[in-house]
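Appendix B, example 12.
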Amino acid sequence: MTALPATHLFAGPEHQAFALPGTTPFVLAIHGFMGTPAELRPLAHSLADLGAAVTAPLLPGFGNEVQRLSTVTAKEWLDCALQSWQQVRARSNGAAVLLGFSMGAAIAVQIAALAPPERLVLIAPFTRLLPGDWRVPFLPLARRVVKELRPFANADFGNPSTRKVFEAMNPALDLDDPTVQAALREVRLPLSALDELRKTGQGALRAARHVRCPVLVIQGFDDRTVPPWTTRRLVERFAGRVTLIEVPGDHQLVRLDHPSAELAFRLIGQYVTGGLA
């Protein structure tokens, strides 16, 4: 059986960094953990339709670089996004908006503390890895012993939710092909990457108290990846004005088939263009 390289999951051009032309405002959009700019394209196009110029970088160790994820650090994610942000700000004449989804939101909070945007948009902002799980504090030690996990080893490829996850990565994958299924079960996730993800969330919690720009937060009621209570705790830390809007649905608020996508996209569009206080 021929092995399917992990990079094949992200082979399409939609997973690459992109920049949609526009006039104002200028928006930097940062994707989530194990995601790529592809997950932000629907939202980015909705903002571009309103006149915004939207840039989305590909963070190190994701997409076609996923095979080097085991060597990437939280600092590299932050540095990459910060460099993109500085370029966007330089072109914006002050009308620059920072937007992040999930882990991207945690990175955006840290950037906002260092180089404040005009406005900050956080979608399902990640801050805590597996909240309440007793194993999380042992990650710095465990990563030295257990090098990797197989997150899809027991995946049910007949489950609609599971299929949506892989279709988002690569719609061209034939999930009914036993060869593809076997290869996906062999995909490895470095434990070190989870520890760097944990550090990224902690960095956001520390940075939040230094964020004074207006903030819009969109959070799903049924989010199990980023439970609503963790987002409420984050919101309490901000120094400036925060608008928290909780909507029906799970973590994937940026997907077009999410039950609250239309509402979330409209609210974000209004906020980014100055129509929502």
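Residues 138-147 have pLDDT under 50 and may be disordered. Residues 14-131+195-272 form a domain with the Rossmann fold fold (CATH 3.40.50.1820).
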